[in-house]
Amino acid sequence: MTTTTPASRILENSPTTSSVVIAHFEASLHEQLLRVDKVASPEEAAAPELALAVLANSTVSELRDLHVDECTKKIRITGNVSSFYHKQLAQEAMRPIAEGRVVDNQVDVA
Asked: What domain of life does the UniProt record list for this protein's source (predicted)?
């Protein structure tokens, strides 16, 4: 089971300084590792926090409202942007963190 969360939600409850963001994700990762034995499948173990952080910290405001579904095999990006350029930016933003996973860009251009 995967979760979908808007990237902008990352910014709602925490400052945007990189050290605070990194500390937040390290704590989140530690918490997930403690729960890994309770997960029903490996796909459920992947959390979208890193992908969301990449979009949440984007200088392009449209990317902050996209959703990400992340599992062990792929990263799916969904939502709406105003141009194909922004759609491509979202996809390229995911490539460095994909780590061999498929980046499934389902973003609609309106």
From this structure: Bacteria
Q: Can you tell me the distance from the alpha carbon of 85 to that of 70, in angstroms, rounded to the nearest whole number?
A: 22
User: What angle (nearest 5°) sits at the alpha carbon of residue 99, between those of residues 53 and 86?
Assistant: 50
Non-local (6+) Cβ contacts of 29 within 8 A are 47, 49
Strands of the sheet containing 67-70, edge to edge, are 5-6, 67-70, 74-81, 102-109
Q: How many residues in the chain?
A: 110
Q: What is the pLDDT of residues 42-72, one digit of tens each?
A: 444 444 578 888 898 889 999 999 999 988 8
Position 59: which residue type? T
